[in-house]
Request: fold
Amino acid sequence: MVIEGYGPPPDPRLTSTTITPDPGVIEVNIAPTASFAEQRQQLETLYQQARLARLTTEAFDVDGTHGGTGGGNHITLGGVTPADSPLLRRPDLLVSLLTYWQRHPSLSYLFAGRFVGTTSQAPRVDEGRAEALYELEITFAEILRLSPSSGGGRPQPWVTDRALRHLLTDITGNTHRAEFCIDKLYSPDSARGRLGLLELRGFEMPPHLHMAMVQSLLVRSLVAWFWDQPLRAPLIRHGANLHGRYLLPHFLIHDIADVAADLRAHGIAFETSWLDPFTEFRFPRIGTAVFDGIEIELRGAIEPWHTLGEEATAAGTARYVDSSVERIQVRIIGADRHRYVVTCNGYPMPLLATDNPDIHVGGVRFKAWQPPSALHPTITVDGPLRFELIDIATATSCGGCTYHVAHPGGRAYDEPPVNAVEAEARRARRFEATGFTPGKLDLSDIREKQARISTDIGAPGILDLRRVRTVQQ
Reply:
């Protein structure tokens, strides 16, 4: 046991576990494991010892929001030695993983923390430079040309690293802040960079041991599939849908279900239900209201936050993350979209069709908080959000519900919730299945707002309350 100072020189015969204090979390780098059973035993010990030390893998905000600690659950793939690494022996394996992750945004967002997007700790390859996919396709073609599976002979380990190093970065060129980090794959710069390792950084520490094992099982299953059958598929230009529909629970859950179905189709019995805890944890249900047989369900959604410009602080120069904007999903079940319109604070929502004709889904971006430093400091808070179901045939409101960002009575809590039960109670107080406009409504005003929103340049199916209050006025 080494308490402080320098560790022993690197040696493939020597495995180690390191424990390091970080701001707000304890970072534990566990020793590599050779099997799923060994990894499970190791994680069981880790979770048990953390609980005995009064450490937790979940956190509660003052308003009752249930989330992770912010610490990563990064998964590292490789071999005992660089020569044993499957990523260097078969470079097409890395190409297959990158291609599949790019085609399925749910793999990037379902298991990540609350801070996602271009300036996050693990941005996707298509969240950076606009020409990234164009250049990546050229790189993939060249790697596959030199791959043993294409008759390219024995692969040179440095080729894969050099080909991808300047593409798997964030927008500033940082090679570590990437969803697929190859800092330790086979860098010619130093011996510590030539380990044959790939680090998947888009995973947050899950609250339960079994959820961590499902994450690992999913990655193992994909590696096994692509080792036997390399993936040859084009990259997808998601465009506005990447930060639009794929940040809404309905479409993200549908996408991760397709991933599980692909695994089953290739002989790996991976059940979709194993991922249900992640979807419920990532997208908690806010509340449900039913009017005339039509159901309105509100769920949390993902909002990619911006990193602001440099500012002077007491500790030096810092860049804050603007967490003032939030997003929720509105799902309508049983409504005829030609007769009914759903409004949020008086603005009609653009709804997206689904594979079920009775279900329509939309999202709302809104300013939830007004911190000292944020984008658009003069725009006030949008809350509370009042949703109404409007019957166009009768020009009346069938009913509505209200979502409060904070306690509706103005109560300010002194401490965060002590457990999940209290957190759920705080969240429940912020939803009310009431609130509608009595009497006849002005349909011309609703149609005029619909026309302006439908021609906006924003992501399809997303109502941005900040924009309709400013640009579209």
About this structure: Residues 56-279 form one domain. Residues 339 and 393 are 6 Å apart (CA to CA). The chain has a mean pLDDT of 90.
